[in-house]
Design goal:
By secondary structure, the chain is an alpha+beta fold. Helix content is 52%, strand content 17%. The chain contains 9 helices and 12 strands. The radius of gyration is 48 Å and the shape is rod-shaped. The mean pLDDT is 82.
Length: 434
């Protein structure tokens, strides 16, 4: 089951932040609510402390005592009333003790401060509890609001920080994904967190082992090809010496078959050596090379092979355009494309070669009138030693594998297309040298 470590870490951190914010919000709300009520109690006590017989008498003359008075914020209303008075807003018993207390009057909760003045007069200052609670809730919400706004911002910041922390991993992944398939050099652990460095070290060890294994395979192929070259050459010379002799027809046919078999073996050994060469690390620097010049040289070498099969090789275009590559790579690229076309084109067929230079690339195209390659086979033909079933042409199955290796090395691109009515066009798009 796939899952995202970054998403999980962000989710868990967000959940913990939300839980912490919820606890902090509830605690802040309760504390602010309690403080707001204490402040309102203190205000009631201050109003009660201001009450003197003289002030009380003036308020009675103004008709304020026993009536609801609006506060600065209009809520909750304040009531000042004698305890022994009748007809006031509150029907309060005279037996209430001095101090702050809660009283229910006519089913309504009130918060009162009762005080006895110097003349023995008792006065009560009160507010409805519901109004006080509304004020306390508003104050508590105002104190909690910044936290409510801050939490989403904190979650977004956490997500950004977590993503930023995983940036080295994404960069490492992009670097590995963009590497050439033949590049098995060690990965750099610079800038990576300590938790990731052991993984990179282990990966580098694996790359080293893979590189050693691949190098051993390449050495084996090259050594085997070298070891086979000398015996095959000797056998070919011996077979050539038999040709002038007067032999019976069956024996002569067997000698010819032997020579054809030795020729195939020699061609395979040569291709194995070429395959080993192109897979090795470059031992020379890239040079500015003319694709058209390489094509001319290859055509001169392979023209006798085409003449033996009466194949017409036409040069459609031969633009001058330079690319950066090793001379051996570019020569082998062109040679294998033309050689393959000659091998798979029937006698009396046609091959068209074209080199077209554009602003940023040089296109090399080789089209033949052979049987072509089915679309389902076009990816597999680049595998080493793969041969299409039913194709009787002599070949090693390494030509296009060599071509693809060179194409990947020099940063080119290769495409296979049909040619009407029958045939195959191989187009290689090479980056043009600046």
């Amino acid at each position: 089951m796939k899952y995202s470590l970054q998403f999980r870490l962000s989710a868990w951190l967000s959940v913990m932040v939300l839980l912490a914010a919820a606890v902090a919000g509830v605690a802040s709300f309760c504390a602010s609510f309690h403080e707001a009520n204490e402040l309102q109690d203190w205000q009631l006590e201050q109003v009660a402390a201001m009450m003197t017989p003289h002030v009380l008498a003036e308020m009675e003359r103004d008709g304020i005592v026993g009536k609801r008075m609006e506060t600065v914020h209009h809520k909750p209303e304040l009531v000042v009333q004698r305890l022994d008075a009748s007809g006031g807003t509150l029907a309060l018993p005279a037996s209430l003790p001095d101090g702050v207390q809660d009283v229910k009057v006519a089913g309504v909760d009130w918060r009162l401060v009762v005080r006895t003045l110097d003349a023995g007069t008792r006065v009560a200052v009160g507010q409805q509890t519901a109004g006080r609670n509304d004020v306390a809730e508003s104050s508590a919400l105002a104190a909690t609001a910044p936290l409510i706004v801050f939490v989403p911002v904190l979650v977004l910041v956490l997500g950004y920080v977590v993503r930023h922390m995983f940036a080295p991993l994404r960069a490492l992944s992009a670097h590995v994904d963009g590497r050439d398939s033949r590049d098995l050099s060690s990965l750099s652990d610079a800038g990576l967190p300590d938790e990731i460095r052991p993984f990179v070290v282990a990966l580098n060890r694996l790359l080293d082992r893979v590189e050693q294994s691949v190098a051993a395979q390449r050495r084996f192929i090259a050594d085997a090809a070298h070891e086979l070259r000398s015996p095959l050459t000797a056998l070919s010379l011996q077979a050539e010496r038999l040709e002038p002799l007067t032999l019976a027809t069956p024996a002569h046919e067997r000698v010819l078959a032997l020579r054809r078999g030795l020729a195939r073996g020699s061609a395979l050994v040569e291709q194995l050596l070429n395959f080993a060469r192109v897979q090795d690390a470059p031992d020379t620097a890239d040079q500015r090379l003319s694709v058209a010049q390489q094509c001319r040289a290859v055509l001169e070498d392979l023209m006798p092979l085409a003449d033996r099969k009466r194949i017409d090789i036409g040069v459609v275009a031969l633009d001058e355009g330079e690319v950066l590559a090793r001379p051996l790579d570019l020569r082998m690229l062109v040679r294998n494309l033309v050689d393959n076309a000659i091998r798979y084109t029937p006698e009396g067929g046609r091959i068209d070669l074209a080199v077209r230079a554009g602003e940023d690339r040089v296109e090399l195209s080789v089209a033949d009138s052979g049987p072509g390659i089915a679309p389902a086979e076009r990816e597999r033909v680049f595998d080493a030693f793969y041969r299409i079933v039913g194709n009787e042409a002599i070949g090693s199955g390494l030509g296009l594998a060599i071509v693809r290796t060179i194409v990947e090395r020099i940063g080119a691109r290769i495409e296979l297309d049909d040619v009407e009515p029958s045939g195959l066009r191989v187009t290689v798009m090479l980056p043009r040298a600046r």
